[in-house]
Amino acid sequence: MSEMAPMPGMTHSMPMRVYYEDTDAAGIVYYANYLKFAERGRTEMMRSLGFAHSRIAEETGIVFTVRRCSADYRAAARLDDALTVETRIAEIGAATLSLDQQIRRNGETIVALDVLVACVGRDSRPRRVPRSLRAALMQPAPIKPPIVQKTP
Amino acid sequence: MSEMAPMPGMTHSMPMRVYYEDTDAAGIVYYANYLKFAERGRTEMMRSLGFAHSRIAEETGIVFTVRRCSADYRAAARLDDALTVETRIAEIGAATLSLDQQIRRNGETIVALDVLVACVGRDSRPRRVPRSLRAALMQPAPIKPPIVQKTP
Amino acid sequence: MSEMAPMPGMTHSMPMRVYYEDTDAAGIVYYANYLKFAERGRTEMMRSLGFAHSRIAEETGIVFTVRRCSADYRAAARLDDALTVETRIAEIGAATLSLDQQIRRNGETIVALDVLVACVGRDSRPRRVPRSLRAALMQPAPIKPPIVQKTP
Amino acid sequence: MSEMAPMPGMTHSMPMRVYYEDTDAAGIVYYANYLKFAERGRTEMMRSLGFAHSRIAEETGIVFTVRRCSADYRAAARLDDALTVETRIAEIGAATLSLDQQIRRNGETIVALDVLVACVGRDSRPRRVPRSLRAALMQPAPIKPPIVQKTP
Q1: pTM
Q2: Domains of chain A and any CATH numbers
């Protein structure tokens, strides 16, 4: 189906650091907080394409809301760890984006996530993925420089 | 000054539990999270008087926003601790409430907070404390049963 | 397989309230925070059986760590909503517990979660589910009074 | 008093971004979350001097714990805002550090914090500020390049 165009494989990469706020009394990052990291990665991928959340909401009334999320926890991050959040669009639907995200430490995946995000309007009803966003997401991956977030 | 009427000393008490999400890698409750506990206590005090935040916002457009907060950390709470958040109105201003809050474990104060909350409208401008809320806050403290939150 | 005994269907139910800390600028509960609610529910289920996390860790060195989690977001909770976290053991493995959790508002499931929890020792290595916990989890569901958390 | 040497005025500056996780249903950053931002700033100031928290804890058994914190909220940050956390050592005591922190947006201070941090050992008892850290904190401010965090 034409709405489900496979992506050319662009991967956005965002560096980040683990702070005390992210950890818990077991000495590791609290399991829900990896979802925060993943959301930062998705946000920065969108911003790198010119689609900051606040701008989209203002201009189109559309917000992105998570419909499904599954996380596979393979190892534990700890205080002061330097992590990388890698975000790849897996599929673009009519009103949804499917994302494959990897949270890595020194190249090793410590948490892998599959996230289904839906576009909704201010009335919480489904809205189509904006045409300009779809075009930006489907452009061929740049060779260099890579799309990498420079500052937090 | 008539706007700064001293309060008759009602203290609202809310029981709560410390979960993993509240702790950090030092094995204790993360310092910012006591401010969450304090806000839950203020919210439940207001709810017990019939002024749930969402109802006030809907009916009057007023939200409460913290202008100043100081916290004195005397001891550390840990995982599974049963705490009590005690909230007392210290002063009612024209557009502000001053609150004295104690977070206790077995009667001992572990964190003491002074919080200045302001009423603002949807335009973020100061608004007077609603007359009905002022009246409710100034009513003589009930003798029994105490105003205590029953469920979380 | 004897290690994978199906459970008799006990469901633990924990009431809770949505506070400002749980919401985000879209006006709804932030998607990662439902995982905090779910963890509170699992913690209270364990506590109701006499297995508070801090006691297990102290007595056996075992902590529970999430290996996999999938969340299906069906509706959005909002500020001041009264929610119920329902937790049911789906399967007891040699070193894991599989849980089925529903976060409900007025009976309607707004988020459904499947969570796989592993027992690990202080060295982060897998440990068998303690025999006493296994026995407690497999006891026939009590008829009355129901296992319900009374206070937060 | 020799223990209370005034600092030469070094200011550490850390850029950061506001994400959905930081905001609440009032559309602004939740008041407790500015304390997270401040702690990130203190952590990065220490790291820039060679004193990452995890390294200090491992080598000396010392952790830093907040004893007092006061926050003056002057304006509200919103989703996608680019903020700067400025951290300055105000005073170095025998076992404490007093810090002056400003969270700014486009140069304007939106939240100002005074934070008193204490050094404690694994037994939670006060410990002297490590001599090497004291020396690093008291060195004359570098002219260029400024001590600025480059990556998150």
Answers
A1: 0.90
A2: 2-130 (3.10.129.10)
